Amino acid sequence: MRPLAGTGAERGTGAKPDVDAGAEPGTTAQPSTGAEPGMRPLAVAGAWEFSLRPHHDERGTFAEWYSPDAVEQATGARLPVALAGASVSHKGVIRGVHFVRTPPGQARYVTCVAGEVLDFTVDLREGSPTFGRWDAVRLGPDHWRAVLLTEGLGHAFVALTDRATVLYLCSAPYRPELERTVHPLDPDLALPWPAAADARTLSERDAAAPSLREAARLGLLPRCPPHTPHDTVRRPT
């Protein structure tokens, strides 16, 4: 896969939790109508935001939330889909920061089809030029967006509403022995959880997760591949 042309705006150094995707840090964008499809690289190398195009009529709404051709056109490679999953979360639930040990790693394409979440991408790859940086995107039917994360990147979100429903496409099957997590409330990461996260409902595994420094000391963090920051998304053969 070709290298990124850029890394987007740096939102991992002090963005406010109410900043909408597409806004410069410290500003608030208007909610997306989904009328203009496209993509943009996030502040984390190897991650992109996709704008979706919903179609509305008297029956409701239809949206194509994933297109392999669109991913290839935007990033120069296809996502090999090995697993499709869904989660439904109560308001205030935090999931993450999750990643899969490399190799083999796992790329993810994520969207929210009911409710709303604030979705975080975190660079946990040692040796990456954006190590420790994060970016955040609001996902939900009022925004019509999706996020693509390549292998080695950490993923987390907080449910801003009840029954927030997140869909995942993953490049590798679920293997619990390879699953890793970094504590989402780690002060070194300083993820700006909004007021909806005040309840801070975490799983036992996430609540007991190591900090970023502890994970590095224990040798749990993935390494950034020397030739490309995004191995799992592969060129078609």
Reported for the largest beta sheet, the result is: 6 strands, antiparallel
Percent of residues in helices: under 10%
Query: What amount of the residues lies in strands?
Result: 25-35%
Shape by Cα distribution: globular
Describe this structure in words.
8% of the residues lie in helices and 31% in strands. The model is unreliable at 1-10, 13-36 and 227-237 (pLDDT under 50). The chain has 237 residues and is mostly beta strands. A six-stranded antiparallel sheet has the order 1-2-10-7-12-5, with no helix packed on it. Strands 9-8-11-6-13 form a five-stranded antiparallel sheet, with no helix packed on it. The chain has three helices and 13 strands. The termini are close together.
Task: Give the helices and strands, then pairings.
Layout lengths: L37 E4 L5 E5 L2 E4 L2 E4 L4 H8 L7 E7 L4 E7 L7 E7 L2 E7 L10 E6 L5 E5 L3 E7 L4 E7 L8 E3 L22 H4 L4 H6 L20
Antiparallel strand pairs: 1-2, 2-10, 3-4, 5-12, 6-11, 6-13, 7-10, 7-12, 8-9, 8-11
